[in-house]
Design goal:
The structure is a single chain. With 465 residues, this protein is α+β, with helices and mostly antiparallel strands. The chain has 13 helices and 26 strands. A 7-stranded mixed β-sheet has the order 3-12-13-19-16-15-14. The chain has a 5-stranded mixed β-sheet with strand order 23-22-24-25-26, sandwiched between helices. Bound molecules: glycyl-adenosine-5'-phosphate.
Length: 465
């Protein structure tokens, strides 16, 4: 399959089956905004639940936080976002398209990453003098710095002192709340604070479906450590990220770990590894892992005047902790998962006796991520079958996200479920009325097993673990 075809198929499947659709559509849409539909919200929630389970619930050294999106503007002064969180904008005077500077470069000399934001800045010797949209020559404006933070006012008055920003990363609240978390949990270093939440960036050129949007979610951990031993901690987190990639079913062959070399990193980042994904639109940053030293806590201590040091309970030593930061985007995870798990089978699979074999789509999502875990399908709509099937459905609903479907042929119904990644289909047939058993079909192996109705929930629970 052509790479662009795959992207189009994912976008089309997402819209058709209610995973992701364009936002504000009845009003002509809003550029690059997307809404997660009934299946999309389940997939997204399952990704967040799995991340929380792996990195908070199952670890004794990580606790959670859910901070305010709007914070005191001093936060962004200390973090350097007010000054540095910029993109360079160039406008075509003819067609008025706004370009990011890096999109108009034709030759790169130096590439470095700003550690506070994780974004790339690139210095080039040559600019294209041509607008890439209308082709006009020598019509490009001067370069202008554009701060990516969304600005708004707190309260009704539009005064300077009321200006606030929508957070461009979730990380800063963790630094700001560091002391309160320490005091309320008595966590000992090394320990981490995890947060999932919305972040906003007024991107100049959003695009590639949900890859780069202005509103998105991040899953971030700030892992506080002593300076010595940071290399070991960095390696540990790198292997945790590899485990995560595997757990969510992202194709490991498409993932590259790119070391951002000396001179290319921001001044306070001693090491950065980008987790990049070979997408249909090129190799792009999926996640980032950074050793942020003690830059942020030091900056907040300085500006706030509050003591943000940690006191080692054993040695009495006082110091500002250093930080390892794994930073993951939720929407980029959704996209990489969909691209990795989508499979088309030409001519179909031999699930049914139907003579017409079409192209079948199977979304091989890990079971933990599947929006619907079990579909209940009576072989006929007759009450003799629909009544017990509904009872089974209502019973299973208490434990799993389920769907009930009695329309169309059984083959079509299996395909509908395969296409959205449902791991198990339960078929209720006429024999079920007699032997009190149902057929459970596995999405991947297509194996069918007869299971007693009274043991069904427990059986499925085991299979879904
Ligand atoms: N706290 C560090 C930080 O925010 P970043 O590299 O700017 O670093 C981290 O962002 C992750 O957030 C990215 O690797 C990506 O997964 C996600 N992300 C960043 N900008 C995004 C955007 N405009 N749309 C969707 N996801 C984005």
């Amino acid at each position: 399959m052509q790479k662009n075809d795959l992207m189009e198929k994912i976008i089309s499947l997402s819209k058709r089956r209610g995973f992701i659709f364009p936002g504000s559509e009845i009003y002509g849409g809003l550029a690059n905004s997307y809404d997660f539909g009934p299946l999309g919200v389940e997939l997204k929630n399952n990704i967040k639940k799995l991340w929380w389970k792996m990195f908070v619930q199952e670890r004794e050294d990580v606790v959670g936080l859910d901070a305010n999106i709007i914070m005191n503007s001093k936060v962004w002064e200390a973090s350097g976002h007010l000054e540095n969180f910029n993109d360079t904008l160039i406008e075509c005077k003819k067609c008025h398209t706004r370009h990011r500077r890096e999109d108009l470069m034709s030759f790169w000399t130096v590439k470095y990453k700003i550690a506070s934001t994780g974004r790339y800045e690139e210095i080039a010797e040559k600019f294209s003098k041509e607008c890439s949209v209308c082709g006009s020559k020598n019509q490009l404006s001067d370069q202008r710095q554009f701060n990516l933070m969304f600005k708004t006012n707190l309260g009704p008055l539009e005064a300077q002192e009321n200006i606030v920003y929508l957070r461009p990363e979730t990380a800063q609240a963790i630094f700001v709340d560091f002391k309160q978390i320490l005091e309320t949990t008595r966590m000992k270093i090394p320990f981490g604070v995890a947060q999932i939440g919305k972040a906003f960036r007024n991107e100049i050129t959003p695009g590639n479906f949900i890859f780069r949007t202005r509103e998105f979610e991040q899953m971030e951990i700030e892992y506080f450590i002593k300076e010595r031993g940071w290399k070991e901690q960095f390696e540990k987190w790198l292997s945790e990220m590899k485990k995560w990639i595997k757990a969510v079913g992202i194709d490991e062959k498409l993932v590259k770990y790119v070391n951002i070399s000396d001179g290319e990193r921001a001044h306070y980042s001693k090491r950065t590894v980008d987790v990049e994904f070979e997408s249909p639109f090129g190799q792009k940053e999926l996640y980032g892992l950074a050793y942020r030293t003690n830059f942020d806590l030091s900056a907040h201590q300085k500006l706030s005047g509050k003591d943000l040091e940690y006191r080692d309970p054993e040695t009495g030593e006082k110091f500002i902790p250093h930080v390892i930061e794994p930073s993951l985007g939720v929407e980029r995870t959704v996209l990489a998962v969909l691209l990795s798990c989508y499979e088309e089978i030409k001519g179909g699979r031999s699930t049914t006796t139907e003579s017409v074999k079409e192209e079948e789509v199977v979304l091989r999502l890990p079971k933990a991520l599947a929006p619907i875990k079990v579909a209940v399908l009576p072989l006929s709509r007759k009450e003799e079958l629909s009544k017990p099937a509904k009872e089974i459905y209502h019973d299973l609903q208490k434990k799993f996200m389920c769907q009930y479907d009695e329309t169309a042929s059984i083959g079509k119904r299996y395909r509908r479920q395969d296409e959205i990644g449902t791991p198990f289909c339960v078929t209720v047939d006429f024999e079920s009325v007699e032997d009190k058993k149902v057929t459970v079909r596995d999405r991947d192996s297509m194996k069918q097993e007869r299971v007693a109705i009274k043991e069904l929930a427990e059986y499925l629970q085991k299979q879904l673990e």
